[in-house]
Amino acid sequence: MSQNSRTWGRKRSFWVAAAVVVHTLWTSAAPAMMYPLYAHQWQLTPTVTTLIFAVFPVFVVATLIALGDLSDYIGRRAAMLWGLTASLIGVLLFAVAPDVTWLLVGRAFMGIGVGLSAGPSAAAVVEFSAPGKAKLAGAITTAAQAFGLAAALIMGGGLIQYAPFPTRLSFWVLVVVLVATLAGVWHLPRHTKAESSKRWSLKLPQIHKPLRRVFLVSVSAVLSAYSVGATMLSLGSQIAHDLIGSSNALVNGGAISLFAILVGFTGIVAKRFSSKLSIIAGASFSIASLLLLMLATATHALPVFLLSSAASGAGYSLLFMGGLNLINAHAPMHHRAGTLSALFLVAYLMQGVVAMLLGRAATAWGLDLAIDVGSLALAGLSLGAMLLAIFVREPQKPPADQPVSSAQPEAGR
């Protein structure tokens, strides 16, 4: 089978895969700055606004349960094309939504899109990376997530504050980005050596027995990261507006985007850290960020909120990168996307649970008390990730996988 002359080489494919990673967090955070506007426009309670957020991880989880290892069989390219198409439908629904029902359906499509593409894109970044650069792949994946978050928050805040159609225009911009990314993915190799030769069948995600201890450490780190991220993304703009007293959407978006900026900066600076050191340091930063968040809401101090946002970004980056690098170092090539999908499954499930619990607590108790109780609980989760990283011994590493060459597809595929 000859290689299509329009198929891109490994280096360009690497960056296209990273662009798909960008979309997963950009799509996730796209409505983050809109929640106060939706609440005002349609008289929504915090329970409903966090429900809009939480529908997304619920559908991510459902997709990962059913289709988490699909790209190990049909190819990274096909899975990412389906995922980007579903995300595009969801974003279009947000761009034209006349009421909250359209938002809920749109979030469902976004969740399906990210569920189909999160694992394959993270795996593709590793597989299209240069030989011996697996840790760099983890840092690039983390930085790509940061870029997606920052784009959603800063652009969303700026367009809300200074452009017309505040609840719609940023989604139309994202539509253009998704169409361009789809075009890039179309030129990726159709099949690679990382695929299994067996037929795909519907089944629950499974973790191979030798990986279970390392998976426990990885998933504790990543779900801790995603839980802290859920606090910032589902309630951050309302915290800045209601508790800190900032009415400028761009300022609020910039404050929350410190989270994203520190995610990317930390990922690059700490790319040589061992997985264990990353998780321990990330848990420490996360605990500090949650204590600072409690202090910010108690004192209504924007500078303290900025420190909390920055510390949570550093914590997220280190926890996520440490967990991801741990899996990348131990997961066999033919099971990598399935294992990563199982990792994201648990993380997104926890993200949805945290968002809904915070929303219900904010409605019942008030936003300030909900933040205090939630921060203490999430600090305990980060402490648990730290202790697992310290005390759980890693298994012996398997032989290193050969990097994927995009110049020649696997014979007979």
Automatic annotation (TrEMBL):
InterPro entries the record matches: MFS, MFS_dom, MFS_trans_sf, MFS_Transporters, Sugar_transporter_CS
Assigned GO CC terms: plasma membrane
Single GO term (MF): transmembrane transporter activity
A Pfam family annotated for this UniProt entry: MFS_1
Subcellular location: Cell membrane
Organism domain of life: Bacteria
Occurrences of domain Major facilitator superfamily (MFS) profile (ranges): 12-397
Membrane topology (UniProt): Multi-pass membrane protein
Annotated keywords: Cell membrane, Membrane, Transmembrane, Transmembrane helix, Transport
Residue spans crossing the bilayer: 12-35, 47-67, 79-98, 104-126, 138-163, 169-189, 210-229, 249-270, 277-298, 304-327, 339-358, 370-392
Stored PROSITE patterns: MFS (PS50850), SUGAR_TRANSPORT_1 (PS00216)
Listed name of the protein: Predicted arabinose efflux permease, MFS family
Organism: Pseudomonas abietaniphila
